[in-house]
Design brief:
This protein is of the alpha/beta class. About 30% of the residues lie in helices and about 20% in strands. Strand 2 and strand 3 form a beta hairpin.
Length: about 280
């Protein structure tokens, strides 16, 4: 592909050449690439979320289809009448979106959001526009977990700011004061509530040589609490979303059967979104 002055020349498999214009994605197009529905994007816009914040929030979030695929595998046989959920670092609620999609597919799967932890006022604005008023416990480092209702599922997509290749990579050493070091604040929730399921998400760099020791330390700590942990780097393009976006996900399950294993299957029937539909 050759580029010049915002135009590019591409050649297909048959050798045909096409001249295409390069432009910035609109917020709606960016949201679609994160597998956010047009209805939810509309709710964010109507709530007054600015274009700048839409770009920022979509860029910092999780592709909903990846979460949906993980949940389909994890909750194929719900053990409770409903799943009680706490979303830490909630953003605009990608996990909530995926849970709702699963419920719409199978109404026998029921869930309840017991609370969230989010401090970004614009993310809170988006979350409430999409999901309605939700109890927000604020800064995860100051939550009194005894005051929070019990929950079965704890999601923690902690800040990637100091891990990402796009940042300064200051790291996530405990008590270092970096945003990524907020990971270690999650232990208080886990010890206090001992949820059956945990879900971690972050950038692929967490698995690189520089940061892998922190991931391994965290896994060892979870094992000491009785959790079995299963992690894998997933790419959104394998979930029928036209975006090459790799993130690491880790499912942790408290006291599973000795022969239990969790598989990160990408073989499921979700239709996804085509590239042409993204720009429709």
């Amino acid at each position: 592909m050759n580029t010049h002055n915002n135009w590019c020349i591409v050649k297909d498999a048959q050798g045909n050449r096409y001249r295409l214009r390069i432009r910035k994605l609109t917020p709606t197009e960016y949201g679609r690439l994160m597998d956010v529905s047009d209805e939810d994007i509309r709710k964010m816009i109507e709530a007054g979320v600015s274009k700048t914040q839409l770009y920022r929030q979509f860029g910092n979030s999780i592709v909903v289809a990846c979460m949906h695929g993980i949940f389909r595998n994890l909750f194929r046989k719900p053990t409770k009448s409903h799943l009680r959920v706490f979303e830490a670092f909630a953003g605009y609620g990608s996990q909530h979106m995926a849970l709702e999609r699963l419920h719409r597919e199978d109404p026998s799967f029921r869930y309840e959001i017991m609370g969230i932890s989010e401090i970004d006022k614009f993310a809170i604005q988006s979350y409430e526009a999409i999901h309605g008023p939700t109890r927000n416990y604020g800064d995860i480092s100051t939550i009194d977990w005894d005051s929070v209702p019990d929950f079965d599922f704890f999601t923690y997509s902690f800040p990637c700011t100091d891990i990402s290749m796009a940042g300064y990579q200051k790291g996530l050493e405990e008590n270092s004061g970096t945003r990524s070091s907020l990971l270690w604040q999650c232990r208080k929730a886990i010890i206090a509530k001992r949820p059956k399921y945990l879900l971690l998400e972050n950038v692929k760099a967490l698995t690189y040589t520089k940061f892998r020791p922190y991931l391994e330390k965290w896994i060892a700590e979870l094992e000491s609490y009785g959790y079995r942990n299963f992690w894998k780097v997933l790419n959104s393009k394998d979930f029928n979303v036209p975006q090459n976006r790799e993130r690491v996900f880790m499912v942790s399950i408290l006291d599973p059967n000795a022969d239990f294993t969790y598989g990160f299957s990408t073989n499921f029937s979700y239709k996804g979104i085509t590239l042409s539909a993204t720009f429709a």
